[in-house]
Amino acid sequence: MAVPTVKTTYSLDLDTVRMLEQMAKSWNVSKSKALRRAIRLAASQPAPGNEVGLRALDELQRSLRLNAEKARRWEQRVRDERRASRDESPR
Known about the structure:
By secondary structure, the chain is mainly alpha-helical. It has helices spanning 14-27, 31-44, 50-63, 68-88. It has two domains: 14-44; 50-88, no CATH class. The model has no long low-confidence stretch (mean pLDDT 88).
């Protein structure tokens, strides 16, 4: 079964083209297929920077000795405070 494709044009710098050609040669595939593989691989990875934020959150939670029960109590306290501030605000 044929896979539908879309012809398109991109401008790549010379170094990127050389790397693409090297990848295609080492994988023994066309440059188009090498580019598709590289894009799929990049798309399957977490976005850069996300892991830094998650690590910081993990460290914060550890430093606070945050567990599920503490988190639940904090969440309830915040909800109660928000409700109270809505009830007090002029309409």
